[in-house]
Design goal:
Layout lengths: L5 E6 L4 H16 L8 E6 L5 H15 L7 H9 L1 E5 L8 H8 L5 E6 L6 H10 L8 E4 L7 H12 L7 E3 L7 H11 L13 E9 L8 H26 L8 H14 L8 E7 L7 H5 L9 E6 L11 E6 L6 E8 L17 E7 L3 E9 L8 E9 H4 L2 H4 L4 H11 L8 H18 L7 E4 L6 H8 L10
Parallel strand pairs: 1-2, 1-4, 2-3, 4-5, 5-6, 7-10, 8-15
Antiparallel strand pairs: 7-11, 8-9, 9-10, 11-12, 12-13, 13-14
The chain binds 6-O-phosphono-beta-D-glucopyranose (BG6).
C-alpha cells in the first residue's frame, strides 16, 4: 500500500547508516511502489556537496548494498531524482536557512531522521524548533544507542521531550522490523495451539541466541565503548525477550503492545553475578582476536554475554530464560527456542529415552519456524522413539515472494511515515531496560574485573556452557 507523500530529512545523510541501510531501504520501497513520486528525501550533513553529489553518493550506496539494484536499474534514476542535499551544521547555525527554504510551503508528512550520535540529539531538536521546521504532526526518528545507562537515557528523553511529544518520537530497534520477529506475535496470538502451553506449567525454559560470525570490523571505535551488553542485550535481545514473554495485548496497537512489553521488563529479577558470563574472543593461529581488531592490548570490553534471566510474574515463575549473544562465534544464527517440559509420564518406559518438544523460531538465516515432535521410528524394531522436525521455512511454505524478505529498515521507515509506533520503543521501555542492565555493567567496571576468553569461531566461553549445565540443561548448537 503506497504511503502518503512525505519529506524525509536525514541528518547524518552521508554517514554509514544512511549508506548501508536508509538509502537502500528507501530505494527498495520506491521499487515496490510504496514511495510516492511526490516524496522527497533530503540528505543533511556537514560536508559541502550539491544535489548531484548526493545523488552520486546514494547511487554508489545502493549499488554497493542493495543486491537487487541491478535488476531494478530502471528505477534507480527516477528514485535519485527525488533526493537532494543541504550542507548543515547540527550544532551550529550554518545551513538551517537553506533547509527552511527547502521545506517551505510543503504540505507533505514531515520526518527527521537523527542518524547522528546521541550527543547531537538535543542540538537538532532545539534547532528544528527554533527554525520553525517542526510542526505538531512531524516525526523524529532516533537510532540506538539510546544512551549508555539509565541516567544518560533519561537525559536524552528529557531533551527530546522539550520539543517533541512521545507520539512524535520513533526510537528504532531494527530487530522489531525483522519479519520473523513480527511473526512471533502472529504465532503466539493468532493461533490457539501455542498460547495455552505458553507458561511455566508447560515450558521448561527458553533460549534466545543471537550469534554473529563477524567481528567488530571497522566499528571498533564505537563498539569498544559499548560492548555486547549495551550493543545487543539491552535492546535487541530484551525486545525479543519481551515479545516472547509478554501477556497478550488487548489490541495490536502501539500502546497496548508497549505496555505489555514494559511489564515484562519491570518483572525481570536482578541477575545474580553467577548467572552472567562476559566473554571476549581471542586470536587463533589464523584469525585475529578482539584486542587486535580494536587495536588495544588491555581492553576489557565484552564481545559476548550469556545470562540467565528470571521473570518474576505468575506466568513465568520457575521458567528461566537463557540469553546469549556474541561476535566471532561459530556461525551467524539467531533463534528463539521454547523448550517444553517432558511428558508427565512415559508409557514407553525408561528405554525410550528422553524426548522433548522444542519450538524454534529462526530469525536468521533461513527464517522460519520448526516444531520438534516425537514419533515412532519406522520399522519392525519395536516402539523406538525419534524426534523429527515439523519445519516451516517461510520461503518454501509461502513461495518465492517470501524468499525476498524485506530489510527491517524498509518496514520501519514506512511505519514512521504511516505514523505507526507499534514497532518502536517507548521512552519508559528504554529506561526500564537500562535499569535492569546497569547493575551488571557496573559490576564489570570494577577494577580488576576481566572478561573470560573464547576462541574465535567457537560457541563462546566454557563458562557459558557451565552456566546452563549447572541447571541440568544445555545450549542448542550454534550452526
Ligand atoms: C546492530 C549492532 O544494532 O545490530 C551490531 O550494533 C550488530 O553490532 C547488528 O552486528 C546485528 O544486526 P543483524 O540485523 O545483522 O542481526
Amino acid at each position: 500500500i503506497p504511503v502518503q507523500p512525505f519529506d524525509l530529512v536525514i541528518f547524518g545523510g552521508t554517514g554509514d547508516l544512511a549508506r548501508r541501510k536508509i538509502l537502500p531501504a528507501l530505494f527498495r520501497r520506491f521499487c515496490a511502489g510504496q514511495m510516492d513520486a511526490q516524496a522527497r528525501v533530503i540528505g543533511a550533513a556537514r560536508a559541502e556537496m550539491d544535489d548531484a553529489g548526493y545523488r552520486a553518493f546514494a547511487r554508489d550506496a545502493i549499488i554497493e548494498f542493495d543486491v537487487d539494484a541491478a535488476s531494478d536499474a530502471a528505477h534507480l534514476e527516477p528514485f535519485l531524482e527525488q533526493l537532494s542535499y543541504v550542507a548543515l551544521d547540527a550544532a551550529g547555525e550554518t545551513g538551517w536557512d537553506a533547509l527552511q527554504d527547502r521545506l517551505a510551503g510543503s504540505e507533505r508528512i514531515r520526518a527527521f531522521y537523527f542518524s547522528v550520535g546521541p550527543s547531537l540529539f538535543g542540538d537538532l531538536a532545539m534547532r528544528l524548533h527554533t527554525y520553525g521546521l517542526s510542526n505538531p504532526d512531524c516525526r523524529i526518528v532516533v537510532e540506538k544507542p539510546f544512551g549508555r545507562d539509565l541516567d544518560s537515557a533519561r537525559a536524552l528523553n528529557k531533551v527530546l521531550a522539550e520539543h517533541f511529544t512521545e507520539a512524535q518520537i520513533y526510537r528504532i530497534d531494527h530487530y522489531l522490523g525483522k519479519e520473523t520477529v513480527q511473526n512471533l506475535m502472529a504465532i503466539r496470538f493468532a493461533n490457539t495451539l501455542f498460547e495455552p502451553l505458553w507458561n511455566s506449567q508447560y515450558v521448561d525454559h527458553i533460549q534466545i541466541t543471537v550469534a554473529e560470525s563477524g567481528g567488530v570490523g571497522t566499528r571498533g571505535g564505537y563498539y569498544d565503548k559499548s560492548g555486547a551488553m549495551r550493543d545487543m542485550m539491552q535492546n535487541h535481545i530484551m525486545q525479543l525477550l519481551c515479545l516472547t514473554a509478554m501477556e497478550p495485548p488487548a489490541k495490536y496497537d502501539p500502546d497496548s503492545v508497549r505496555d505489555e512489553k514494559l511489564k515484562v521488563i519491570r518483572a525481570l529479577e536482578p541477575v545474580e553475578p553467577r548467572d552472567v558470563v562476559r566473554g571476549q574472543y581471542e586470536a587463533t593461529d589464523r584469525l585475529a582476536g578482539y584486542r587486535n581488531e580494536v587495536g588495544s592490548r588491555d581492553t576489557t570490553t565484552e564481545s559476548f554475554v550469556a545470562l540467565k534471566a528470571r521473570i518474576g510474574n505468575w506466568r513465568w515463575a520457575g521458567t528461566p530464560f537463557y540469553l546469549r549473544t556474541g561476535k566471532r562465534l561459530r556461525a551467524r544464527a539467531s533463534e528463539i527456542a521454547v523448550v517444553f517440559k517432558d511428558a508427565p509420564h512415559s508409557i514407553f518406559g525408561s528405554d525410550a529415552g528422553r524426548h522433548r518438544n522444542i519450538l524454534t523460531i529462526r530469525l536468521q538465516p533461513n527464517e522460519g519456524i520448526e516444531m520438534g515432535v516425537t514419533i515412532k521410528e519406522p520399522g519392525p524394531g519395536g516402539m523406538r522413539l525419534v524426534d523429527v522436525p515439523l519445519d516451516m521455512t517461510f520461503s518454501e511454505a509461502l513461495g518465492p515472494q517470501a524468499a525476498d524478505i524485506p530489510d527491517a529498515y524498509e518496514r520501519l521507515i514506512m511505519d514512521v511515515i504511516r505514523g505507526d509506533q507499534t514497532l518502536f520503543m517507548r521512552g519508559d521501555e528504554v529506561e526500564a531496560a537500562w535499569a535492569w542492565t546497569d547493575p551488571i555493567i557496573e559490576a564489570w567496571e570494577a577494577p580488576g574485573s576481566e572478561p573470560v576468553l573464547y576462541a574465535t569461531g567457537s560457541s563462546g566461553p566454557d563458562d557459558a556452557l557451565a552456566l546452563i549445565h549447572r541447571d541440568g540443561r544445555r545450549w542448542r548448537e550454534i550452526k
